[in-house]
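Fold it.
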Amino acid sequence: MAYNLVTAKPKPDRLEDLLKNLRRNAYVSMRPFGKTMTFSLKNARLRSDGYAAWEEEDYCSPPLAQERAAALDEFFDELEVTPVQQGAGWEKIQGLPRLFPELTIGP
């Protein structure tokens, strides 16, 4: 398993649907990535340039292939991944505001 710092441009017209899905934990049952993707998206940060950022635990090659097919490509454009050590991505973005502050559950 690998860890990545993910940055992506949110699709503004789709964020409300993503928020609804996260509120009802729509992705949690997806294996093997549902729980970690849900945690990551609920705790995603918003950069000053409008891009979202989060750390993601990843199980596939190419990176985030399953997550992109299941949800990420529906809600984000310009997805980029940078390999990091576990926790280093969260540490790097911890000072940024939350993308969904009402859903905060973690780091």
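The first helix runs from residue 15 to 23.
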